[in-house]
Amino acid sequence: MNYVSKKIILLPVIILFSLFLAIFSSSSNVHADDYLKNIQSKGTLVMGTSPDYPPYEFLSKGANGSQVYGADVELGQQIAKDMGVKLKVKSMSFDSLLVALQTHKVDMVISGLNKTPERAKSVDFTNSYYQSGTGLLINKSDKGKIKSYQDLKGLSAGAQVGSVQYDLIKKASKDVNVKGMENVNDLILALKSNKISAVAMDSAVADSYVSHNPGIMKISAGLHSADSNNNVAFPKGATSLVKKANQTIKQVTTNNLYVDKFIPDSIKHMSSNKKTSTASSMWQYKDFFITGIKGTMLISVVSIFFGIILGIIFALMRLSNNWLLHAIAVCYIEFIRGTPQMVQIMFVYFGLGAIVNVPALTSGIIAISINSGAYVAEIIRGGITSIAKGQSEAALSLGLSEKQAMRYIVLPQAFKNIWPALGNELVTLIKDSSIASVIGVGELMYQMRAVQADTYQGVAPIAIIMVIYFVITFTISRIMKYFEGKISHGTND
């Protein structure tokens, strides 16, 4: 291995190591006594939650589209009020909540979260504000066959990834095939389509889903855990916030506000359209899908714009005779193409976001642009290398500089050759923008989840966004095909 190859290998290692050092060192910059003071100074308390757990937290139609409601949200509002600040709610997948808390993307997490010894090592918990049980959801057709978790031997059971119920059902029996999913609506859909035989979840949440799904029922799980108390989570060392929140929780539990007020108030916002036809129900949520289309197209258009710019830059760098520029381009292209896009989105939002507070939408655009840039770079490099060297030599012989030859002779011909591939990349990017929903970006996939949560219909919203994605991508493919014909016709003339 020569000296240059060693540098190429070491460069990404050094960059990543520096990033990790910066991220982990940034998490210790806030002193415990400053947490409450900082929250009151900025005037807002950011609450992280996974809104697929009615009646604790769920998405429903509000004055400005989808809005998060629930007993946990009302508790968060009370905590914020007692701190003298306003509450801001951020939605994301359940298994991302504690990561968001550790990287200071949110100030607290209230999401039907149970305190466990493992979680307590990473975050600080308040006293319990509510105690829940565990129930099993099964299809009514299995009523006589499944009476508790003991009857699940040899069968498949589902639970939300990262939940106490997931750990409970997994530890209860080694003979049960436990399938974890991020979203509760997906679990219900899997149950109704007989992909799994049961779903383990919070008892009150199970009641909400049973009330809107006539084909399923709740039974006693026969599972008990000391970790069934719901708690509020704060960053590790945020003693001032924990103490302040505990004062609110003491007031709430003493007066039984959570059960007598917060839950009943939340139920009022839950959808009552379970008897409405599917077509009528979906039409009522057209604004959700329109908002999702706008979000998807915004992400796609901006990302492909910056992706092409990055692609041109790194393609030229990889073709450069300068070993450093070539090495940087190779590291960038190979690393981005060798890691999943979801991981990249989460790293930009949670990782780099720990250093600089980047909004979810901006993080999604940055990550998707960077990902697209790596693929576009290879497409452009292939287009440039497909042009005969005689073209560049002829341009140089006519007195053009190397930059002018590349700009006026090589690149125009290369773009003609790679136009179909660029069209495919744009179509792929539009579909991949759905991954941004994992950090709470309000594109099509996120809005589809909102409709699922509010209507308790699993398949219909999926079918609608499939059609929407097809219409968008097919239209773009036709447009790209039209311009491809124009380019070819212009060249032939």
Automatic annotation (TrEMBL):
- Compartments, record wording: Cell membrane
Gene Ontology MF term list:
transmembrane transporter activity
What the entry lists under SMART domains is as follows:
PBPb
Which UniProt keyword terms apply here? Amino-acid transport, Cell membrane, Membrane, Signal, Transmembrane, Transmembrane helix, Transport
The portions of this protein that span the membrane are: 297-317, 347-370, 455-476
Q: Where is the ABC transmembrane type-1 domain?
A: 293-477
The membrane-topology field of this record reads: Multi-pass membrane protein
* Broad class of where this protein is predominantly found: membrane
Q: Which GO terms describe its cellular component?
A: ATP-binding cassette (ABC) transporter complex
Give the InterPro entries listed for this entry: AA_ABC_transptr_permease_3TM, ArtM/GltK/GlnP/TcyL/YhdX-like, MetI-like, MetI-like_sf, Solute-binding_3/MltF_N
Stretches of the chain forming a coiled coil according to its record: none
**Where in the sequence is the signal peptide annotated?**
1-32
Q: Which GO terms of type biological process are on file?
A: amino acid transport
The family line of this record is: Belongs to the binding-protein-dependent transport system permease family. HisMQ subfamily.
| NCBIfam families, sorted | HEQRo_perm_3TM (TIGR01726)
Please report the name of this protein according to its UniProt entry. ABC-type amino acid transport system, permease and periplasmic component
What are the leading ranks of the lineage? Answer: Bacteria, Bacillati, Bacillota, Bacilli, Lactobacillales
